[in-house]
């Protein structure tokens, strides 16, 4: 789906879904207008690939080599990093036009698996923060590594299940003497599978995970507002950043998917269906890039600003590079041996 290719093909194949008399003219205009945009999006895919690989690989290395995975937070952060790496690894594949069906299915599956698992793990970390702060005493026994591993297995199983249909229908279609990777559904059930795809993405990203995140962080803010901790304001700012980043990255994409669903029901989004379709496809391409950038931001907001992770990273720098990073703020010199859950910014700031 980083898909300069997919969005471009959807525009070219507009006549496959809707039978309007002026489809030929619409297709021709789409081909000329989208070329420059597709090149820009391709470059952005490679940039996000480099940044995502560098950030998430660093987090993964520190977690596996220098952080003891003792808590639910540790396990969840590890799996979130793996999920983001999956998304980052798949980015160059979407910019590369291959005539290999196996590669087509692999890159489709990797992206879809990263999309669902990443969103679910971000939500799971929000629930973990909620339990750690709002129900700190009651949730001590529930926030163990064992339960973290169990929850992670369930999330990966759900992600694989939801990603499977896209992999099954991923195929090569010949367009302008080239083969492009995109889903090709059976004619009799094409409408159903397109709706299933859009509904699944909207359910996970917009109707389920976002409300859960908002609920958790609103509850956390209520607890923090009653606290006299000196780092309360910093924690509130970080919570605001977490929610805003998720909203900015994923809500535009999910809203665009929702409009694509309306299009499947032949609900007109403008006076000219052809122009509306091309505009929506362009919006989808931009929204996809914004959404994919979330895999690059996650290492920063979920790891590098965490007190425990920063100290582990500092040890790595001292050991392998001979220089250290000094944390700033009133908590930088505090003993953290009893703060095994301070990987995330919400917890580490107070």
UniProtKB/TrEMBL annotation:
Molecular function in Gene Ontology: C-C chemokine binding; C-C chemokine receptor activity
Gene3D superfamilies attached to this UniProt entry: Rhodopsin 7-helix transmembrane proteins
Top-level taxon in the UniProt lineage: Eukaryota
Start-end of Basic and acidic residues biased regions: 332-341
Keywords from the named record: Cell membrane, G-protein coupled receptor, Membrane, Receptor, Transducer, Transmembrane, Transmembrane helix
Keyword Transmembrane helix on entry: yes
Start and end residues of each stretch annotated as Disordered: 329-350
TM spans (from-to): 34-64, 76-95, 115-140, 147-169, 204-224, 236-253, 286-305
Membrane topology term: Multi-pass membrane protein
Any single Gene Ontology cellular-component annotation: external side of plasma membrane
Subcellular location(s) per record: Cell membrane
Signal peptide start and end residues: none
Family recorded in the similarity comment: Belongs to the G-protein coupled receptor 1 family.
Protein name according to UniProt: G-protein coupled receptors family 1 profile domain-containing protein
Organism of provenance: Oreochromis aureus
Taxonomic lineage from the root: Eukaryota, Metazoa, Chordata, Craniata, Vertebrata
């Amino acid at each position: 789906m980083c898909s300069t290719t997919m969005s471009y093909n959807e525009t070219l194949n507009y006549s496959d879904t809707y039978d309007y008399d002026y489809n030929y003219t619409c297709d021709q205009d789409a081909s000329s207008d989208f070329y420059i945009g597709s090149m820009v999006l391709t470059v952005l895919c490679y940039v996000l690939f480099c940044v995502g690989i560098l950030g998430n690989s660093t987090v993964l290395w520190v977690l596996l080599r220098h952080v003891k995975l003792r808590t639910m937070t540790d396990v969840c952060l590890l799996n979130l990093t793996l999920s983001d790496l999956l998304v980052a690894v798949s980015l160059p594949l979407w910019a590369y036009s291959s005539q290999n069906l196996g590669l087509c299915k692999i890159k489709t599956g990797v992206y879809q698996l990263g999309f669902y698992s990443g969103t679910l793990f971000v939500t799971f970390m929000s629930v973990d923060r909620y339990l750690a702060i709002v129900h700190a005493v009651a949730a001590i026994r529930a926030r163990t590594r064992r339960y973290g591993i169990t929850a992670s297995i369930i999330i990966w199983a759900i992600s694989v299940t939801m990603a499977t249909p896209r992999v099954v229908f991923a195929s090569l279609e010949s367009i302008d003497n080239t083969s492009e990777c995109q889903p090709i559904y059976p004619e009799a059930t094409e409408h159903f599978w397109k709706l299933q795809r859009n509904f699944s993405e909207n359910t996970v990203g917009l109707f389920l995970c976002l409300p859960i995140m908002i609920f958790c962080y609103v509850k956390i803010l209520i607890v923090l507002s009653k606290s006299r901790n000196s780092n309360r304001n910093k924690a509130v700012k970080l919570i605001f950043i977490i929610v805003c980043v998720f909203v900015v990255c994923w809500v535009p994409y999910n809203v665009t998917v929702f409009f694509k669903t309306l299009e499947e029901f032949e609900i007109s989004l403008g006076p000219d269906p052809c122009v509306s379709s091309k505009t929506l496809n362009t919006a989808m391409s931009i929204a996809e890039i914004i959404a994919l950038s979330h895999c690059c931001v996650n290492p920063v907001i979920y790891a590098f600003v965490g007190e425990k992770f920063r100290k582990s990273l500092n040890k790595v720098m001292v050991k392998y590079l001979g220089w250290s990073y000094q944390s700033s703020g009133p908590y930088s010199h505090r003993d953290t041996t009893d703060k095994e859950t301070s990987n995330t910014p919400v917890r580490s700031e107070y």
